[in-house]
Specification:
The chain has 342 residues and is of the alpha/beta class. It folds into 2 domains: 4-124 and 308-329, ornithine cyclodeaminase, domain 1, CATH 3.30.1780; 141-302, NAD(P)-binding Rossmann-like Domain (Rossmann fold), CATH 3.40.50. It contains 10 helices and 16 strands. Strands 1, 2, 3, 4, 5, 6, 7 and 16 form an 8-stranded mixed β-sheet that branches. An 8-stranded parallel β-sheet has the order 10-9-8-11-12-15-13-14. Helix 1 crosses helix 10 (308-322), helix 2 (121-139) crosses helix 3 and helix 2 (121-139) packs across helix 10. The longest helix is centred in the first third of the chain and has 28 residues, at 17-44. The two termini are 36 Å apart.
C-alpha cells in the first residue's frame, strides 16, 4: 500500500472529496464496472468478507433519515479491512446539500491501525453505479435499447446512465420520472449528450422502457410491474430497494448481491418473500461465474443491498492511485504503547 512506510508512525493518509472524485474519474466507468464485477466474484471465493451492516434510524421509523456502517475485509495478496460510515438525509437536497455524506476508513490488516481516511460519498456513488452497470451487462445482453427509463432524477441515476453508456448501451430515448418535475426536466437536459432525453409526467410513460433504473429515497413500495415491462421482458435496476411492490418482484427473475442481505431491513424483495415464500433470487456472482442462469421468460430485476466490500475494494484502489494527492495527518494516532492519561 502507499502508506506502508508510515505504519507505526502515527501518520494517516487523508484524501479530500476533490481528490477522490478526480481519481474515480481516472478509473472511469468501464474499468470501474469491471472492478466491481471482480469484487463480486472474489466475495464468492471467500477473498472478500462482508459482515452485516449496522443500521441506525434517525427519528421516527417512517422517516427516511438513517446512518449505516458498512465494514469489510480483504485477504489475499493485498490484505486490508475498513468501514464506510454513511448518513442519508433526503431533506438535504432542499437545503442545497448532498443527500448522502460519508467517511471511509482503511486499516492495515496486520496491525489493525488506520492507514487512510477519505471522503466516502464519491466512493459510495461510484460503486453503486458501477455495480449496476456490471449487472446490466449480464442481465441485459442486448445493448441497443428503444427506451431507457429512469425513476429518480438524482446524481446516482446520472452516474448509472453514463456507466451504461460507457459499457456500450445505446438508446433511442431516455425517459425520466421524478416527483419533482423541475429536477426531472433539468436531469433530462443534462443527459442530452448521451442522446434524446425527456421528462415523463407519470411513471406509466416508462411502460415501453426495456431497461429501467430506480434510484430514489422511497421508504415504502409504490410502483407495480407495468404491462410493458412484463411483455417486453424488461430489466429493472432496483437500486433503491423499496420502489417496487412485492407482487411485482414475485413475477420477476430476481438477482441480488447477497440473498440474505437483500431480503432484510424491509426491502421490497424481503416483503415479496413474505408474500410468496417461493420467490427466488440468484446472486450476481453466480451469473458472472456461469454457475446459474435466469428464467428468460420473465422480467429481470437486480436489487443490490449494497455491500461494504465494494466500498473497500474501490477505496483501496483509490488509495493505491492517489500518489501526491495524499495529505498526511502527522501524529493523528498515538504511537507509544506506554502512553496513558494522568
Amino acid at each position: 500500500m502507499t502508506t506502508s512506510t508510515h505504519l507505526g508512525s502515527g501518520t494517516v493518509a487523508w484524501l479530500s472529496a476533490a481528490a477522490v472524485r478526480a481519481i474515480l474519474m481516472e478509473i472511469g466507468h468501464r474499468e470501474g464496472a469491471s472492478l466491481m464485477g471482480r469484487a463480486y466474484c472474489d466475495h464468492a471465493a471467500g477473498v472478500l468478507r462482508n459482515p452485516d451492516s449496522l443500521f441506525f434510524k434517525l427519528g421516527e421509523p417512517a422517516e427516511p433519515d438513517r446512518v449505516i456502517a458498512l465494514a469489510a475485509s480483504r485477504d489475499g495478496d493485498s490484505p486490508i479491512f475498513g468501514v464506510k460510515w454513511i448518513a442519508s438525509v433526503p431533506d438535504n437536497v432542499a437545503r442545497g446539500l448532498p443527500r448522502a455524506s460519508a467517511v471511509m476508513v482503511l486499516n492495515d490488516r496486520k496491525t489493525g491501525r488506520p492507514v487512510a481516511i477519505m471522503d466516502g460519498s464519491w466512493i459510495s456513488l461510484a460503486r453503486t453505479a458501477w455495480s449496476a452497470a456490471a449487472a446490466a451487462q449480464v442481465l441485459h445482453p442486448r445493448h441497443q435499447l428503444g427506451t431507457l427509463g429512469v425513476v429518480g432524477a438524482g446524481p446516482l441515476s446520472a452516474c448509472v446512465a453514463r456507466a451504461l453508456h460507457e459499457a456500450g448501451f445505446r438508446w433511442r430515448d431516455m425517459r425520466v420520472f421524478d416527483l419533482n418535475t423541475i429536477r426531472a426536466a433539468e436531469f433530462s437536459e443534462d443527459m442530452t449528450d448521451l442522446g434524446t432525453a425527456s421528462a415523463a409526467r407519470a411513471i406509466d410513460q416508462l411502460d415501453d422502457a426495456e431497461l429501467v433504473v430506480f434510484a430514489t429515497s422511497a421508504v415504502d413500495p409504490h410502483v407495480g410491474l407495468l404491462p410493458g415491462w412484463m411483455t417486453g421482458k424488461a430489466t429493472l435496476l432496483h437500486l433503491s430497494l423499496r420502489d417496487l411492490q412485492p407482487e411485482a418482484l414475485t413475477a420477476c427473475s430476481n438477482v441480488v448481491d447477497s440473498v440474505r442481505l437483500a431480503t432484510s431491513h424491509g426491502t421490497s424483495l424481503g416483503k415479496a418473500v413474505s408474500v410468496d415464500p417461493a420467490t427466488h433470487a440468484v446472486e450476481l456472482a453466480a451469473l458472472l461465474l456461469g454457475r446459474q442462469s435466469l428464467d428468460a421468460t420473465r422480467p429481470r430485476c437486480f436489487s443490490p443491498f449494497g455491500m461494504g466490500m465494494l466500498d473497500l475494494v474501490l477505496a483501496a484502489e483509490v488509495l493505491t492511485r492517489a500518489g501526491t494527492r495524499i495529505q498526511w495527518l502527522e501524529g493523528f494516532l498515538d504511537s507509544s504503547p506506554a502512553s496513558s492519561l494522568r
